[in-house]
Design brief:
The chain is mainly alpha-helical and about 350 residues long. The chain is built from 15 helices and two strands. Among the domains are: about 100 residues, no CATH class; about 80 residues, no CATH class. Helix content is about 60%, strand content about 0%. The N and C termini lie far apart (about 110 Å).
């Protein structure tokens, strides 16, 4: 539940202090602030600098300072706090991969830290940013940072599999599907949408999942000239969504897409009818035109099909069925000359 993210910020730390300014890197995630620092000022100059940078919104500098403080801190609890704030600062600065590494260090090195529940949700946020194509990751091959939706899919899949009943598990499935769509991996996206519908039927994303799963068939298709089966399946799925949710969140969009697909498929079928008409196969042309009127009655294609039918005789006879090759073989066999009689046996002395 995305709405839980803002509430989490209030309850995560339970410590007093003035909140830091809203970081630009987190506004898109529905967050209004990073975790506040506890009141007071450290006697350590480097830690004090880290706190000052953090409170002032200088997050890149704060990350570096907290990381250095953590390296020299001997007390495990305080060291875990420094790592946590270094991660918070990195995330606020838009350094998603560095924040991911710092949060993961916190989980692995300080598994009993009180920050862990909130950090788990931070990992969800990072996975979502990657899945939506908003975060960059260092590339070992290119030597530069690149968008990496696949990494987001991995992070969110791990999140959902490890915590299938977490309040954000359905959100994780949603953004996994979104990432696959962005990569044009339509069968994988469809699988994610279907899993969301089955595993989380009460989710706020359930209607969206059914609608978007139907669209994956349409997006996967290269057009009716190549393969009508995907378009026909998508059309059937969209009609099912419209019938199930006549006033649903995507009812208007579904209606528009249904109308577009009906016209596209109908127009293609009319062209098939015209093709047979040009070849003198009037009966076949009539069959295709009637199919358009029957299947897509409210389209311009149906009107065109009616014009085509009006120019054809109504009492067309179907062409004779093709000859059975077995009958051809029988006729050929009848035309063969009779077999010669076997030679007489030689006399025996």
């Amino acid at each position: 539940m995305t709405a839980l993210l803002a509430a989490w910020l209030v309850a995560l730390l339970g410590c007093a202090g003035d909140p830091a300014p809203a970081p630009e890197g987190l506004e898109d995630e529905g967050l209004v602030t990073v975790a506040p620092l506890a009141s007071g000022t450290s006697s350590d100059p480097l830690e004090r600098q880290a706190q000052d940078d953090f409170r002032a919104g200088r997050y890149a500098a704060a990350q570096e300072a907290f990381t250095l403080v953590a390296q020299t801190e001997k007390d495990p609890q305080r060291r875990s706090e420094h790592v946590f704030y270094a991660a918070e600062a990195a995330l606020a600065a838009g350094r998603h991969y560095e924040s991911y590494e710092l949060y993961r260090t916190l989980i692995q090195s300080f598994p009993t830290s009180r920050r862990i529940p909130g950090v788990i949700e931070r990992l969800f946020l990072i996975g979502r940013a990657y899945a939506e194509g908003k975060a960059r990751k260092p590339s070992l091959f290119l030597g530069v940072e690149t968008l990496d939706r696949e990494f987001g899919i991995t992070l969110l899949s791990n999140f959902q599999k490890a915590r299938p009943r977490h309040a954000l598990a359905d959100d994780a499935m949603h953004y996994i599907a979104v990432a696959h769509e962005g990569l044009e991996h339509y069968p994988d996206a469809r699988d994610a949408w279907d899993r969301l519908t089955v595993d989380y039927p009460e989710s706020e994303w359930a209607q969206t999942a059914q609608f978007r799963a139907a669209l994956t068939y349409v997006h996967e298709s290269e057009g009716p000239a190549y393969d009508t089966s995907l378009l026909l399946t998508g059309l059937a799925k969209l009609r099912a969504y419209r019938d199930r949710y006549p006033t649903g969140n995507h009812a208007a969009e579904a209606g528009e897409e249904i109308a577009r697909l009906e016209q596209e498929l109908g127009a293609f079928t009319v062209e098939q009818a015209r093709f047979y008409l040009r070849r003198g196969q009037d009966y076949s042309a009539q069959l295709y035109a009637r199919a358009v009127v029957r299947d897509y009655p409210d389209t311009q294609a149906a009107s065109d099909a009616k014009d085509l039918l009006a120019a054809l005789p109504q009492d067309l006879e179907p062409p004779p069925p093709p000859r059975d090759h077995a009958d051809d073989d029988a006729e050929l066999e009848a035309l063969q000359p009779p077999a010669a009689p076997p030679p007489a046996p030689l006399p025996v002395d």
